[in-house]
Predict the structure.
Amino acid sequence: MNGESLLSSFINTTIERWPMVLDSILSHLSISLMSLAIAVLIGIPLGIFITRHRKFASVIIKIASVFQTIPSVALLGFMIPFFGIGRKPAVIALTIYALLPILQNTYTGIVNCDEAAKEAGKGMGMTSFQVLYMIEIPLSLSIIMAGIRTATVMTIGVATLASLIGAGGLGDLIFRGIASVNPGLILTGAVPSAVLAVLFDSIFRFLERQLTPKGLRK
Amino acid sequence: MKLVKIKKFLLISIAFIFLISVTACGSNTANSEEKTIAVGGKEFTEQDIMVHLVSELIEAKTDLTVNRKPFLGGTNIVFTALQSGDLDISVDYTGTGLVSILDEEVVNNADEAYRIVKERYDEEFGITWLEPLGFNNTYAIVMRADMAEELGIEKISDLEEYAAEFSFAATQEFMERDDGYSGMKEAYGFEFKEAKGMDPGLLYTAINEKQVDVSVAFATDGRIPAFNLKILEDDKNYFPPYDAAILIRNDTLEKYPELEEILNSLAGLLTDEEMAKLNAKVDIEQQDSKEVARDWLVENGLID
């Protein structure tokens, strides 16, 4: 198939199946964003916790890494007896996969904050909590956000596998395209997924700039 | 001082081992380049067994080296590899060839379907369909046997009454194919409350764990007896025949003509039940597919 007919079959398929494409994009987004939100809510506090209790740090990061290495089909298979099929097991699996970059970057970012700045804060009589949100988090924000952005791009990509467990999403289009020798259909699933990944990466980049204190902006 | 010596010794031995393994690999590939054929299969157990069965037979009967490539991917990927010459041999099913590759209408007569794919593959792709192996791995609609019995469901038509409250799961391939779910809805005139596309392996876990009520399966799958699933009778003859046969590239056959007779010695021997048993040995009893293939060949007197 040459490039032009591939492009036209992609466009035609997208138009023909627009209701299904839209539906897949929406469910893809909701699965990805839900998993990301949960991963952020777990990953950042846990990352902060292990900077305060360093003896747990390597164990917890290692556990997150081990989860990362489980092949997704295997992980999804383990979940069926406990969580059934559909959205729930997909979100749980994606959360597990998104955890490592967020956890790792939060930990690394905070640990590598300028000691002198922290000492100065303590010297001014800041409590541990004040040191955290007035010094450590602002100073490590770009690293933490980089972790979230990595997790975002990865999750939106990996969310195509949610289709394996009946959760729908853009993976449905991709796997159906592969199964039916239909490159146009594969692209109808793959292109929106790539666009979403880039789009959300930019959104988080923008957010990061807005959240960075003026004095630290580059 | 001593420690340094030991370290040096270790380092040298590691380098040595590395060197040996590199040269060993090198000579290996050099050897096998001459008389090697590649046998590939799709990403499920039956195909894995067939890859080993064909390979074991060829290796026992000829001096060819077989490069085994099981679990390559779906129909499309394996066919593309065969067409491009990355593979010499694969196993496929008449119905799949007809609908997925040749883009033809469904043919419900098994002989007619075989005749069409044999002729068209030879003309259009330079690929030969050898004689049918004997099993018909058609799609089957299954549900848990206890549930089917309780509700008195014997055939697919019986589902009509319950379809509005039943969930259905199938492979993505089945959801997309014209002779899959969309055709089935038309032929039987009902659709399920929800129909989900899933990974082929996870389907069986899902129905066994009562997460779906009705599922698609393959008629020769070992998990059907193992999970006590019931195949519902296809009373409208909706599913076309999917008779399995070995596919071989014509140029490979020209190069090694003896392969035709050797591979055709399998024809007709593998019935649905035989194949389901072999599948069960791998899927349920967790035996190695290569061993299962070998044992079957020995049992049937095809190799020593």
Remarks:
- The mean pLDDT of chain B is 89.
- The longest strand of chain B covers residues 127-136.
- DSSP finds 14 helices and ten strands in chain B.
- The first helix of chain B runs from residue 2 to 32.
